Amino acid sequence: MVDRVFVVSDVHVDATANAAWVRGLRDRRGCAGAGRDVLCVGGDVSDDVEEVRAALEEFQARGFAEVFYTFGNHECWMNAEDERVGRETSVSKIRDLLAICEEMGVRTRPGKVGDGLWIAPLHSYHHRGFDTEPEVDAPEVPPVERVMNDFRFARWPDNLSDMTDDVARWCDGLNDHGWDEFVASIEPGDKVLSFSHFLPRLELIPEKRMLFYPRLAQASGSEFLRKRVDTLKARVNEGNLTHAFGHTHFGWNQTLDGVRYVQAALATPSEWSKRPRSLEIGEFTNLSEEPLCVYEHGEFVEGQRAMWSDYYAANERAPEDVELLPHARQFIRQRWGPGRRATVSSDASSLHPGATGVVERR
Ligand SMILES: [Fe+2]
After folding, report:
1. Among residues 352, 304, 273, which one has the least CA distance to residue 44?
2. How far is 48 from 341, CA to CA, in rounded Å?
3. Which residue windows are transmembrane per the record (predicted)?
4. Strand residue runs (E) in the chain
5. Could you tell me the distance, in angstroms and rounded to a whole number, from the CA of residue 198 to the centre of ligand 1?
6. 359 pLDDT band (50/70/90 cuts)?
């Protein structure tokens, strides 16, 4: 029996306050009413393998009966420690991480956790083909490979290019093992909570004209991931599939075509101080003593408010409108307009996805 299921993404334990958040989670061992809680960790824990291991151990030590995990883009960044241990590519790093999870009993494959509830971590990576919406009118905005750190710090084998669909397809293939059997085992009345680091749908990111970096969608999601979610959707009754995601650092709770999508990102302390409202979902903030609870008493917990998904509940998406909003226009002019010489390193240092799409509506 499962009591509750919690989700969190983008734990970024390199931030001291985030490491403290992990250590400060309520210890549920011996707590009445917390007999069998499950936690889903949706990637971007750290680019340091040992830090990922330590955080997952800490989650286990907090008394979660099961911890599920998938990696994010940060886990694909190569660092000095990888060099020291002879880890050559992001592929070997992902494989090492999945092996460590196996050793630790952290689950990286779909499984039933009781009372008709499946948890399905879906491994993924971003590719620019995910973005099918028109470009905004901002020729000064640099291409995604110059701005996003992933293109500098991840290192893929020669046969996998991150400029095409290769890496996203390879990462999606990590889900293949046992997939058909898993899908076939889902009964129509079952519930499924799937989760990924990246976005399975373009509607889960604010439109380009509102973003400080309008090409963010090109490094945010995966069509391969969307197909996995669609496959799960076809197996369950309406309302029985929730998908949690991360990466963009926006609180989110939206139902699209009968699937509910949520994001609860721990993100970074500076993001919480600059734009708390776009990060919150329901009661969840970086000061919460719990991750976001999405399942309790045999049902999905619903109704959490989140700024951007509330905005899209009231406003149609209009991607054909390619005119930048004034705040974005101003930011982009200042940063990349004539006479500005934003270098690759300065772009990269300040344009983590979470730092880019800032519009706080008051
Ligand atoms: Fe990410």
Report:
1. 352
2. 32
3. none
4. 4-8, 37-42, 66-70, 111-114, 117-121, 191-195, 241-245, 252-256, 259-263, 292-296, 299-300
5. 7
6. very low
What is the 199 CA–ligand 1 centroid distance (Å)?
10
Taking the CA atoms of residue 305, residue 309, residue 313 and residue 318 in that order, the dihedral angle to the nearest 10 degrees is: 170
Calculate how far, in angstroms, residue 220's C-alpha sits from the geometric centre of ligand 1: 8
Instruction: Quickly list DSSP for 88-114.
Output: -SHHHHHHHHHHHHHHHT-B-S-EEEE
49-61 helix and 16-24 helix, angle to the nearest 10 degrees: 30
What is the rounded distance in angstroms from the CA atom of residue 200 to the CA atom of residue 232? 12
73 close to 44: Cβ distance less than 8 angstroms: yes
The length of the chain, given as a count of residues: 362
* CA angle, residues 319, 229, 36, in degrees to nearest 5: 125
- Read off the pLDDT of residues 218-233 as tens digits, 9 standing for 90 and up: 999 999 999 999 999 9
pLDDT tens readout for residues 179-194: 999 999 999 899 999 9
Residue 303 CA, ligand 1 centroid: distance in Å: 25
4-355 belongs to CATH 3.60.21.10: yes
DSSP string, 39-73: EEEES-S-SSHHHHHHHHHHHHHTT-SEEEEE--S
- Residue 115: which pLDDT band, with cuts at 50, 70 and 90? confident
pLDDT at 304: 95
Q: Which residue has the higher pLDDT, 358 or 12?
A: 12
Question: Tokens 């099918």 map to which residue?
Answer: 132
Q: Where are the domains of the chain?
A: 4-355
